[in-house]
Amino acid sequence: MLSTRLKNITPSVTVAISSKVKEMKANGIDVISLSIGEPDFNVPEKAKEYGKRSLDENKTKYDFVAGIKELREEICKKLSRENNVDYTIDQIVLSSGAKNSLTNVLLATTDPGDEVLLPLPYWVSYSEIVKVTNAVPVEVQTKKENNFKLTKDELLAAITDKTKLIIMTNPSNPTGAVYTKDELLDIANICVEKGIYILADEIYEKIRFDDTFVSLASLGDDIKDITITVNGFAKSAAMTGVRLGYTASNSEIAKGMTSIQSHTVSHPSLTAQYIGLGALLECEEDMQYMADTYKKRCEIITNRLDKLEHISYIKPSGAFYIFVDLSKVKEKYNYKDNFSVEFCQNFLDEEKVAIVPGKAFGIDEYIRISYACNEKDFLEGVDRLERYINKFF
Questions:
Q1: How confident is the model at residue 334 (pLDDT cuts 50, 70, 90)?
Q2: Which of 385, 21, 38, 324 has the alpha carbon at shortest distance from 207?
Q3: Measured in whole angstroms, how far is the alpha carbon of residue 30 from the centre of its chain?
Q4: Which of 151, 99, 104 is nearest to 126 (CA)?
Q5: Which of 84, 202, 285, 315 is the right S-S partner for 218, CB 3.0 to 4.6 Å?
Q6: Measuring CA to CA, how many Å separate 345 from each of 47, 54, 361?
Q7: For 115-161, how does the pLDDT look when each residue is reduced to its tens digit (9 = 90+)?
Q8: CB–CB of 317/334 below 8 Å?
C-alpha cells in the first residue's frame, strides 16, 4: 500500500552511522567519530542573539514564502561581494536546509524520467533526492588522477536526450577537491550548448584552503541563467541543526520553487532565518576562524596519513574530509562486493572508530574520514586505522 518510490530509496549511510555511534556512546562505549559532516563548533554567539531577539520581539508569525526580506537582501550583497555574481531578492529562496533547497530545485526543473547527472563520487543524498522527485540519477565516471573532477569529455559521454540537469559540488564532499575556473568553464559551456541545468552545490565554499574557488554562476550571463546555486549556513556557521539553506537562480526558477515551497513547508523557521541574518551581518570573523582551523587540521591529518603504508588519498583543497583509497587493502580483504561497508563496520566494532564507506558515495574502494573534530580524536583515529590496516599485510 505504500508508495513504490520507497522501494528505490536507500537510507542515509552517514545518518545511520551517526545513530550507531550515539547508541554505542549511550551504552558506555568510548567511540571516536570521524564520520559525520558536521562542524564541531557552535553557532556564533552574535548570530544566536539575533534569533533570541526575534523571539523576544514576537517575530513568530507567517512571513514571505521565499524568506524574510532583510535576509534575502543580505544574501544578494554577499553573493555580489564574495562570489562576483548579482541577484535580486526575488531570485533568492530560503529553505529549511540545503537538502530542502536541493529538493525544491529538482521539483522545479525535472519531470519523471528526466536524467540527472551525478559525477562520481557524489554526496550520499543526491541520488536519493533525485529518486524521491521521480527523476533518474545517472552516475558519471571520473578519474582519480584528476582528483575525481569531471572533465568535458566525461560529461559529453554521459549526456543523452533525457539529460535535464547536472549536480556539481564545489568544494567536493567527499574528496575536498576544488574546480578551477577553466575546469568549470569547460563543463558550463557544454551545459549551455546542450540546454542542461546546473545545480551548483557550494555549501562548502567558505571552507577552502587556497584562492582557486570560483562560483559557477559568475562565469557569464548564459551560464548564470542555467545555474541554480545551492548554499546555506550549516557548514560555514555551524548551523546544522538550525536548518537554513538558500538558492540563487533566474526569476522563473525561483518563482517555481517558491510556489512549490508554499505548499510544502510554507517557509523556513523565522528564528533560523534571523540567526542566519546575524551570521551574515556579524560573524565573518567567526566563520573565517572555523575555516582557518579546518585548514590547519587538514595539514596535520594529511601529514599523518603520508606515513601510512598501503593507502593513498585525494589531497583536499576545501571542505573537511579526506577520501582515502584502500584498493590495496581490498585485495587482501575477505569481502569484495561490499568491501567498504564491511571494512567500516568491522573497523567500528574492533577499533571503535566510525568512518564512512566509499560505497555511500558510489566508489567502493574508498573510505571518507572527517576532521571536523578535535586533533586528538582524528590523530588517534588514524593511529587505529593504521593498526587495523596492517593486520592484512
A1: confident
A2: 38
A3: 28
A4: 99
A5: 84
A6: 38, 44, 16
A7: 999 999 999 999 999 999 999 999 999 999 999 999 999 999 999 99
A8: no
**What whole-number distance in Å separates Cα of residue 184 and Cα of residue 192?**
12
Supply angle C-alpha 383, 389, 390, rounded to 5: 90
Q: Which three cell numbers stand for residue 20?
A: 550507531
- Cα–Cα separations (whole angstroms), residue 282 to 72, 155, 178, 277, 279: 16, 41, 27, 8, 6
Collapse the DSSP code of 166 into the 3-class scheme (helix H, G, I; strand E, B; otherwise coil) and give the result. Answer: strand
Burial class (CB in 10 A: 0-12, 13-18, 19+), 371: buried
Strand order through the sheet with 197-201: 92-95, 245-248, 227-232, 197-201, 163-169, 115-119, 136-140
**Dist CA 365 CA 2 (whole Å):** 35
84 within 8 A of 215, measured Cβ to Cβ: yes
Q: Which of 3-12, 187-196, 338-347, 368-377 has the lowest mean pLDDT?
A: 3-12
CA gap 47, 55 in Å, rounded: 13
Contact (Cβ atoms closer than 8 angstroms) between residue 310 and residue 325:
no
Q: How far apart are the first and last CA of the chain?
A: 51
What is each CA distance from 364 to 120, 121, 238, 329, in whole angstroms? 11, 10, 29, 12
pLDDT digits (tens, 9 = 90+) for 261-302: 999 999 999 999 999 999 999 999 999 999 999 999 999 999
- Cell numbers that stand for 285 in this block: 570573523
